[in-house]
Amino acid sequence: MAAATHNYHAKSLLASATDPSAVNALIKDSLQITRDTRRRITRLQHNAQTTYRIYDNWNLIAEYAPSGTLLKEHIHGPRIDEILCAKSGANAKRRIVGKLVAYLLA
Fold first, then answer.
1. Closest CA to 30 of 48, 13, 14
2. Residues 32 and 50 sit within 8 Å (Cβ to Cβ)
3. What is the DSSP letter of 39?
4. Distances from the Cα of 84 to the Cα of 74, 79, 87, 106, angstroms
5. What does the pLDDT look like over 14-47, one tens digit per residue?
6. Distance separating alpha carbons of residues 14 and 91, to the nearest angstrom
7. CA 101 to CA 28: how far, in whole Å?
8. Which of 9, 30, 48, 54 is the most buried (most CB within 10 A)?
9. Euclidean distance between CA atoms 85 and 72, whole angstroms
10. pTM, to two decimals
């Protein structure tokens, strides 16, 4: 069996990972990560599924599909890393300015 591989940026941040020894030998598990200049994950591709992440300063506030569909919304409290709730699916409401989303997905 082939070993898993991990690639890192110069700052020791994970950039990609591949694990060919998944449960089913036909499935190759892979992960690609894109970060912004503040080292936040802005694009996450796991196998064939891509997710774009939108932040308010350091708080992750939304996750979008490449089509622009809102997948998940995160509601934060006043403290660092204080996530009050995360809404996904039909209950999620778009609260981001459309032009910002279009720019980040381009």
1. 48
2. no
3. -
4. 8, 10, 10, 30
5. 888 887 665 555 556 788 899 998 999 999 998 8
6. 32
7. 30
8. 54
9. 10
10. 0.69
